[in-house]
Structures are given as structure tokens and as C-alpha cells.
Amino acid sequence: MIEFTVLDKSGRVVRYGTCLPETLAQQAGPDETVIEGIVDHAVDEPRYNYTYHRMKAYPEIGNQLDAIFKLAKSLQAQGIALPSDTLNWLDAVQSVKDAYPKGGA
Question: Domain-by-domain residue ranges, the chain?
């Protein structure tokens, strides 16, 4: 994962976050520029300050997704009806986990 900053045409910070390196260019919309790294003044802007600090403090996105996966599996095991999109996602994630088990070769 890499950090990025998106700037508007005037050079003002629009947003920032993290992404996979191969998706960096996709982070900018029309009339925006994306750069790798966090622009120093983005951290000082009040409207972005909490976002930056939260981004740095949250667990890694993979760990968050794994926790959500476990929650959904638990709900499913309890017989709670889940939306079809969620069931499809659970199947897709489980396929990956089965194909690449922890400690597997």
C-alpha cells in the first residue's frame, strides 16, 4: 500500500488516503492530480487533520476486511439472512482463503 494525495487544479488538497500502487492513477477524478505521498499541508488543514490521523491509527485494511469477513460468517452460521452480494463476497473470500491457506506453500 502507498499513501497518496489528490489535488484540485489550484493545488488544494481534495483528499488523501492509501491504495495499491497499481491503482494510484485511478484515485484522481477529472481536473484532479494525484501524487504519491501525503502533502505536508494536508495534515495541517483542519478539514483533513482528523482524516489523516484516523488513517494512520486504523488497523491495516486487510485486517479490517478479515474482521468483517469473520463477522459475516458468524451471522451466517447463526442463520441470519444476508444479502446475496454479501454471500457472493463471502464465497469469493473463502475461495481465496482456501487457495492460499495460512502457513501454506
Answer: 2-57, 61-99
